Amino acid sequence: MKPSSSGLAGVDVERAEQTLDEVVIQLNRLLRIGALHRRENEAFRVAVDAFIGALEPALTLVPSVRVHCAAGAVYVNGRFVKVKGASFEAAERLKNTFERLDIDVIELSPALDRENLEDFLQAYHEAWGGHGEPKDLAHQRFSGIALRSSRATEDVEVDRRLELARAYAQLIVLLQEAARALARDQLFSLAWVRRGVQQLVDAAKGQGNLLGGLTLFDSEERGAAEHCAAVTAWSLRMAEEVGLSRREQANLGLAAALHHLAPPSAIAEAHEGETLDSVLAFAPSTSSLEALDRCSLLFEADLPARGRPGWPVPRAAAQCLTVACAYDRLLFPPDGRLGWAPARCLALLGRNPDGNFDPKVLRTFQMVVGKIPVGSRVRLSDGSVAIVLGVGERPPVRLETAGPHAPVIDLAVRTDLEVAELLDPEPSKPSTVPFLLG
Amino acid sequence: MGSIKESWTGRYREQRVSNKDLRLGRDATFCYAIPVGGAGTAFAQQLKRTFNLYRMYGEPHSMCRAAEADIFRVVREGLEAEESLVFRFEAQGLVWNDEFVLEDVGEDSLTRPLFADGVRTFELRFGLPPTELTDFVRFWFQAISGRLPPDHSFATLVWEHEFEHVQVGFRAVLTEDGSDQTGERVHAAQRILEGLTIPGTDRVTRTQPVDALGVIQAVPGFSEWTREELDQAAIQTLPQAAAPTGYERGKLQQGMRPRSRGAGQRVLWFLWKSMPWVDGPRWLEVEQFLGRIVNTLIDEDRIQEVKSALDRVLEDHDHPESQRRWISAILTGSVVDRLVERCDAEESAALLKMVPLERIPRLVRAIPNSRGLSRQRLESAIIDRRPSIQTWVGWIADASVDESRVWLSIASRLSEAHRDALLRVALVSEHPDVRAAAVDAIRASELDQYRGLLARNLETSKPSEEDCILRLLVRAKDPWGAELAARRLEQPSLTVPERLECIRCLGSVRGPRALETLIEILESSGPKEERKAAALALSHFDEPRAGSALQHASGGLFADRGLKEACRTALRRRSTRSGEPA
User: Fold this and answer.
1) What is the ipTM of this complex?
2) Residue B134 contacts by C-beta under 8 Å, 6 or more apart in sequence?
3) Residues 136..175 of B with a Cβ closer than 8 Å to A: which?
4) Between chains, do A279 and B270 touch, taking CB under 8 Å as contact?
5) Residues 6+ apart with CB under 8 A from A249
């Protein structure tokens, strides 16, 4: 059995996924039949039975089933519907239905019984059959089933968060491709990586805290690409903080994205001439001044803030990479070892060993990370464990036990609660990132 | 009158275009490029025409600028009517108002590269200035013609340019073929997104480190940490850091901005400082990298940065061997050639003075084609190196005729020893012309030094080389010259001018053998031009026999009038020289 989570508590994750996929399949069938037939029709009844048969077991696993269509993809409870099989076909058709209804979300709760469902389907049939506008359905209220448009503020936020997560995921994939190519001494398209960084810059606008939280993403295969993506994210945060333009942010981000991409062993084990190897890996693409500047940054990022005798003093841009790199290495040490809690890593960096980091850059970094970094696991004063969702002394949190879709508790409002303790990572604990995307 | 029919998406119209229009070019195409379909179709037509002109003439050409003006006019008219023009990219072409206005045909697709790059739509908005449209069109052309700047795609260029009135829509999913939901990349991204969004799917198997100190020591800056320090740092949080002040933010901004100026110099310096880690295999990579950096800097007209970096390298006296390898890697043959082309610039000339010795011959090859200051700089780049005789001989061993001449001109400014070595090598060259050039360079006073080599060359020499030797002997007034001239006159293949030259040489060299030969020619019944030349040549002789021969020839009853005049001239010259009456 895979690690459990509060979202799918105590169950086999694969079985839960299959159950949710089945809901998507049956929902699609139900809506198609509901558009064509009235409740007197035999097919209608069969479809309703099948749907309820699929929904009931799902609602024993999750508090509600939430089918969400965003940016051309369909998610069930925040999870992508896999691009294969019957569930995917159903998801594809659901997208059309969602489009006609002008909605993005259908949420099914335990309050949905047969009677409520049939009422909804009656209205759905009428709206679809020309007695009204399908779009009007989104304004009606039904018990146990909610249709929402992404124009609602909350859902816009959800969309934007997912968009950022997707941009971050894509950057990791692009960097993984690049790292593989570099390991094989093959050329790769730097334009794609640049594009990935640019997309991240756009998606991160106004969502800096979430971007910082995404850097806590961990996986069994976490390697150079994930590390570089995290350093990119922090570099973008710092660049935005000091007021660099969009283009300047992307330039710094690109240097960060490449800073330890090659050789792949670079973050696993430091070795003499490691930086040189990193730079040499990009030598074939140094045909512009911008590329040379990037190479220079890679060298500078390896230097302490005061430089070395006879070496140039590194620029603030390089120090951004150095600080972010060190932070990420403390969070995720190589060889699958467990690091420290984000706040503790920040505290360690704050000690600025041997003046290795530029104090100005370090303070900027501490500012963007926040005193209690987003994604931290904390114990509240009532003993419950929560995940930090924002910055500040009294940040918004989500209770870990309530799952990633649980309501947000804003400690600024709930003055009876406060952060009592910062918890270090534990070997069996899953990532806190899904709580941020909730 | 010419008739042009343009077919487009199944709708076409015929337009009459005058020959004058065709001659003017600018409006002829424009006239028939306005299709029935409206602004979007007209834009597409103009775009196609502009791209064709770009291909034919290059973007800066006036025809292209006129085409850009035309395309702007079309768009402006369209925008006056419709506020905005929205186009959509499909795999098969460009769509406007649900109709294909550009269709993908064969390999020269105007739309496929952009579609594959993820471009989904673009919208031209009211108020669009011509510069924005021109930039957009040029980016488009660069994308379809493979001329994008390094490490850029159309999408990244457009993103960086931040157009105000051109809105470009991209697919959020980065797929190689432009499709929305295919490919390994999409699947991989979705797997990661699952890890980001679904608790428990990240499958992390991290374990507590056996030694936390080991973890922290692997982080830059913490390598020297001790267990005590780590224990002291066990506190969980520190007070919130103070935000950087305004001044500090300014400094940070400055330090975080891209800085292309000096980038090459910095990278070169870092590479130099990394040399202790450069072993055999790495050196090959470093060597290639250096070449690439220098070529980039030359392309970008930043030669000064190469110069500055090399100056610093040369100041580092502890590593002479590395310095040598570096200079050799930076100033490669092709780089030297590029620097030579730019050697009117001071920094290029300075770099040329560092060219490795083995590449000096490249400079020599460039000198014959250079003039003025460039030539002076090239020559001084060689002379300042003061090569050893051995190196010098190595350079000139295989020199061509032109190169030999350059070497000879340079040798005289180096040292006598260099000159001597050069002449000795050149005199035994396989090429007769090189040998001839060397003979021409020998001074009269140096004849004895090279007499042996000259004599040996004469055994196998060609007429041109003999001429050179003869001229040398004449300059040296050496009796050997008379021998050579007389021997040459016996050759039946000699042309008239060459024979006349030999005769004049005899007069200049003088000596008994010359006198004998000249009198013989004067008294012969040979060509009168030769006899006249012999008469004039005899004026250089003070011997009475010369006077007698001239007297006799001038008094001949049936002698040629011209010959008699030449003899009298010669006699006058002799008497002027000796002070006796003719």
Assistant:
1) 0.70
2) B68, B72
3) 148-153, 155-156, 159-160, 162, 172-174
4) yes
5) A201, A236, A239, A240
